[in-house]
Design brief:
The protein is mainly α. The chain has one domain: Tetratricopeptide repeat domain (Serine Threonine Protein Phosphatase 5, Tetratricopeptide repeat, Alpha Horseshoe). It contains eight helices and no strands. Helix 4 runs antiparallel to helix 5 and helix 7 packs antiparallel against helix 8. The chain is elongated, with a radius of gyration of 20 Å.
């Protein structure tokens, strides 16, 4: 016959299965380029908390690192849907669109990054603003030359 679990036993079970544990371990695996293990842990985080923008963001970064920009876009968009203020998802979403030459979407995402990024991200905001300026200039020139 099964007995009741103590509070401490229940706490240990939840700590072992906590989203934070899997998220932190997944980040370690990602940083050490053990992408398959990282993906497993980030998927576990999502299975425990489907609104975890950090898990989606990290999955996006992995796919970006593997030059799989379509999947990266999917995960960065999921991160933004879970947390509109997830600044780095806007930045990497812009870079992903930029890499697959979806200029209009890249422009929109760079602008979102600039709008959401706090002042401490000054250097990245400058880079995004410069890329945004160049894309707009190129698009204007390209559209003008087609006519």
């Amino acid at each position: 016959m099964l007995g009741y679990l103590t509070f401490e036993q229940i706490r240990r079970i939840f700590v072992r299965c906590s989203p934070e544990r899997f998220l932190n371990r997944g980040i370690f695996y990602k940083e050490t380029k053990q992408f398959d293990l990282a993906i497993e842990d980030f998927q576990k985080v999502i299975s425990l908390n489907s609104d975890n923008s950090d898990a989606y963001y990290n999955l996006g970064e992995i796919h970006f690192a593997k030059n799989n920009y379509e999947n990266a876009i999917y995960y960065f968009k999921k991160a933004i849907n879970a947390n509109e203020n997830h600044v780095w998802s806007h930045y990497w979403l812009a870079l992903s669109y930029d890499n697959i030459k979806k200029w209009d979407k890249a422009i929109n995402s760079y602008q979102n990054f600039i709008d959401y990024a706090p002042e401490i991200y000054y250097e990245h905001r400058l880079k995004a603003a410069e890329r945004l300026r160049r894309l707009k200039k190129w698009l204007i020139k390209h559209k003008f030359n087609k006519q």
